[in-house]
Amino acid sequence: MFPLYDVLPSRKKPYVTIALILINVVVFVYELMLNDRELLLFMYRYGLVPARYTVERVKEALGFSLLPFITHMFLHGGFWHILGNMWFLWIFGDNTEDEMGHVGYTLFYLSAGIFAALTQFVFTLHSTTPMVGASGAVSGVMGAYFVLFPYSRIVTLFPIFFFLTLVEIPAFYYLMIWFFIQVLNGLVGSYGIAWWAHIGGFVYGMIWGYILRMRRIHRYRY
Questions:
Q1: Which Pfam families does the protein's record reference (predicted)?
Q2: How many angstroms separate the CA atoms of 68 and 21, rounded?
Q3: Domains (ranges, CATH) in the chain?
Q4: CA torsion sign, 190 to 168 to 172 to 133?
């Protein structure tokens, strides 16, 4: 099920979402300009390496820095990696930004990425593989969307036997299925993808979404 767009129009221009996409693209273009050695060093310096904080020899090699908890979410490991993350951010980000406002959405996005990274960190304390990508923060956006706009519909490219067809799936069910897949992979321990970052980001987004929804209900009630 590949999402193409949602049917819920945004009221305002999603300036922050557009800016985040542009920043990620600029950083990725910079990555493409590096040779293999430079790129490896770049990933280890600005990607999140859990062992940097838990294994003494890795601490000594990389040095202590909390910056990767932020910078990791602007790095990507390949074309399809960044394309997928930015596509999902574009679909779910505009309405979420609409609801939160530009400043609130910016703070939410960055904090969701940090919380997602911390979640992955807890499950991979001694890993020496750099965690990179916006997927944790984007998962946070999706979690907030799940709570704030459950009745929206996601136009999805759906395979039926040998044919592809467009299907409108309620956002609640689409995102619930997506989240279930992340949890399943996290429990199985599929290698190479930060499943727990996706899970942590999504739950964090749900909490933010719930708080905003309660405020909205309270505002309308009074």
A1: Rhomboid
A2: 19
A3: 2-221 (1.20.1540.10)
A4: positive
Q: Dig out the tokens for 173 from the structure.
A: 């069910």
Q: Which of 196, 65, 202, 219 is nearest to 124 (CA)?
A: 196
Is-contact 150 179, C-beta < 8 A? no
* Dihedral class, residue 109 (left if φ above 0, else alpha if ψ from -120 to 50, else beta): alpha
Closest to 116 (Cα-Cα) out of 99, 133, 102: 133
Q: In 3-state terms, the chain is what percent helix, strand and coil (to 5)? A: 65, 10, 25
Q: Are 168 and 154 in contact (CB under 8 A)?
A: yes
3 state SS of 210: helix
pLDDT per residue over 74-127, tens digit each? 999 999 999 999 999 999 999 999 999 999 999 999 999 999 999 999 999 999
String of b and e for 163-180 (b: at least 16 CB within 10 Å)? eeeeeebebbebbeebbe
* DSSP per-residue string spanning 76-105: -SSHHHHHHHHHHHHHHHHHHHHHH-HHHH
Q: Which residue has the tokens 């964090």?
A: 204
* Cβ atoms of 138 and 196 closer than 8 Å: no
Encoded tokens for 119: 């979640």
35-75 residue pLDDT tens: 999 999 999 999 999 999 999 999 888 888 999 999 999 99
